[in-house]
Amino acid sequence: MPREESRVNTESRQSAASDAAPTVYLLVGLTGSGKTTYAKQRLEPAGAVRLSVDERVHERHGRYGVDYPEPDYFALEKPIVAEIREELVELVAAGHDVVLDHGLWLRPAREEWEKLVESAGGQWRLLYFPVDRAELLRRLEERNQRQDANALTVSESALDDFYARFDPPAGEGEEVIDQDSFQALP
């Protein structure tokens, strides 16, 4: 059973033992679950470097479903994920804690990132952001009005598709992040 966490210990690497391996926070959750908000409020201020796939896709290609067709997202994302993998390895090798701000919807993808972190000399923590469908719909309705990189326009039918494809972590060493432990934004 996953641990309920109201706060993740985000002590900076400098305050940890000198021989401690850098930590890579692997964030798991659907669009709108609070991953980015949590990373910005809790992990970045503690010194972790945040790597966001969605933000880089937005910087290079524009807004999802507006500047390019939704079905093109995964093709646009692929080279950026490869770039972030390389950057993550370099950051871990340099002793930095890292946040992978990416949904990691499927267990095989999570396992692949865990192996990468370990092979780079880091340790991973799998942070899971469960949110019920009604709350996600509420957040997405508000978020759909924004136009930034972290405000992908998501319809109710798209959310249903996301749920159908999402494989929630179970028995993977995940830490469940309590939605009341931080100020979630729409």
From TrEMBL:
<keyword id="KW-0067">ATP-binding</keyword>
<keyword id="KW-0547">Nucleotide-binding</keyword>
<protein>
    <submittedName>
        <fullName>ATP-binding protein</fullName>
    </submittedName>
</protein>
<feature type="region of interest" description="Disordered">
    <location>
        <begin position="167"/>
        <end position="186"/>
    </location>
</feature>
<dbReference type="GO" id="GO:0005524">
    <property type="term" value="F:ATP binding"/>
</dbReference>
<dbReference type="InterPro" id="IPR027417">
    <property type="entry name" value="P-loop_NTPase"/>
</dbReference>
<dbReference type="Pfam" id="PF13671">
    <property type="entry name" value="AAA_33"/>
</dbReference>
